[in-house]
Amino acid sequence: MQDGTTTGTQEKPRQAVVIGAGIAGLLATRVLAEYYEQVLVVERDALPVAPQPRAGTPQSHHLHRVLPRGKMILERLFPGFLDGLLEHGAFSLEHTKSLLIAKDGRTALSAPNATGKDASCSRALLEWEIRQRVQALAGVRFLSHQDVIGLVASSDRKRIAGICVREHGQLAERTTIAADLIVDASGRSSKLTHWLQELGFHLPEDEQVHSAIGYSTRYYQFPADAHHEWSNALKPFSQSDGVAFSLLEDHTCAVIIGNIGGHYPPTDAAAFEQRLTVAIGSYLPSLLQDAQPLDDPRGYRIPVCVRHHFEQMEDWPNGLLVMGDAFCNFDPIYGQGMSVAAIEAETLARCLHEQQSYPQPGFERHVLQRMQEAIAPAWWLSSVSDLNAPGVTYTGSSPLRGVRLIQLYLDLYLKYGPVHDRELIQKGMQGQTHMLKNFLMNGLLISPREVINARVLATLLAVEEASAERQLLAELLQGYPQRFEAILDEIIPDFSRSFEGLQAFAQEEEVSVSQ
Ligand SMILES: Cc1cc2nc3c(=O)[nH]c(=O)nc-3n(C[C@H](O)[C@H](O)[C@H](O)COP(=O)(O)OP(=O)(O)OC[C@H]3O[C@@H](n4cnc5c(N)ncnc54)[C@H](O)[C@@H]3O)c2cc1C
Description:
Elements: E1 15-19, H1 23-32, E2 38-42, H2 68-77, H3 81-87, E3 91-92, E4 97-101, E5 108-112, E6 119-120, H4 123-135, E7 140-143, E8 146-153, E9 160-167, E10 175-178, E11 181-184, H5 192-198, E12 207-210, E13 213-221, E14 232-235, E15 242-248, E16 252-259, H6 269-280, H7 284-287, E17 292-293, E18 298-302, E19 305-307, E20 320-322, H8 337-357, H9 363-387, E21 393-395, H10 403-426, H11 434-442, H12 454-461, H13 467-477, H14 484-491, H15 500-508
Parallel strand pairs: 1-2, 1-11, 2-7, 4-14, 11-20
Antiparallel strand pairs: 3-6, 4-5, 8-9, 9-10, 12-19, 12-21, 13-16, 13-17, 13-18, 14-15, 15-16
Helix pairs in contact: 1-4, 1-8, 2-8, 8-9, 10-12, 10-13
The structure holds flavin-adenine dinucleotide.
């Protein structure tokens, strides 16, 4: 959208180009199709006609879950989306239960999933379902098997006016494609920083969490009539392996062993099964009853998670945006990436709508600033959690503060919150329980400050057996002279604008979320 040139009565700008047909690219396309005459999606892969993993998204072999906020946005962008997934074979989560296994691998909390409709499926099916719907939109075209290899800038570098492409795998011929707006959604492997530097831009320092994450995933097949006590199970990693189990389409399930700090789980089948037994042995007979392995475990390693700060560039060029993993990528164990991409798409829609009504200069940089506000809670939650693991380090212009204190608080919350919850449930206050709030916070539906505050801390410490934690907390707080709430104001970023879109949206509709 050209700065200050488009009003509600003017015609749509002609062409937007989206680089990458992953989740972020598809969601951006869905939004842009309402504002541009044509949207061209340029993708490196030849896109499969059926739901299949593909080379350009190597992570798609691994389990991908969508957080509650992401589900709400998908349903809004594509009405009937959940029904579509179920029609195409996704596992129905209605009347099923989830299992949260404690870090010791023995104790667990079993809870029913939400009463409403919900589904679980592979990343390949999820992406395919979105792609089918985007391909059907008026004005949208896909140019596949093409590598974007650079940006074309105006002579004064104030505008990005096009992209340079060549056929995937060919080194010779290249062509340029002109566009009014280009959105880079090419994922973790994005070359955007390189392209901008080539054009002479100076980049602000990014933030990096050197987590050295390792995944190992194995698929299993169940008989068609298998009975399942739980549809999902999760054991968070601590000093030991984390495990995630999820039932998927076609009577299959995926099991991940995940770890951090360079403790990579094995991809050898026998070693994988052994590590699984150590991690969640007592639950395996129920989870994998009658299941047969479909393949050998496959690994994935992520040395570092990166949050770029393009929004800080005062000379950010017009005609260019960036979304999804190319802007900020997370430790996947928290399942945030696709939902954050959905929040960014919704942010883009809001900005385009405002720009149409009240055109302002510097539109693209403004969009990046708004997206960055939306990214903030997810980045903070996953970084704080990762940084508590030995060997994980952070680099960036403003170090994360109070990591140990926040982790102790969250440990307290999970340990003593359920003690209060029994009382709250007896009083009919299910909507106020600690476990629900924890779920909503990690689902990016409420601000971390609704869970982490002085009032809640007081109730947690009121539990009699909390004396050891009280002592530890007192020791940690010695480093801070202020009151607890003031300390939190200092160490937790200001998320006051991060949930703006959600409030407006929540008034419009209600979509069920699974717990
Ligand atoms: C192991 C693992 C597990 C994960 N699990 C979860 C999860 O449970 N939940 C969750 O929400 N997120 C998860 N994620 C993150 C998730 O995959 C991404 O955040 C999400 O898919 C959004 O990514 P994206 O669309 O920005 O990029 P991608 O999905 O990576 O898509 C980028 C697209 O751009 C194309 N492309 C790249 N370069 C070019 C180029 N030069 N020219 C043309 N095309 C190009 C690629 O082929 C690809 O199609 C996981 C990630 C990993 C690594």
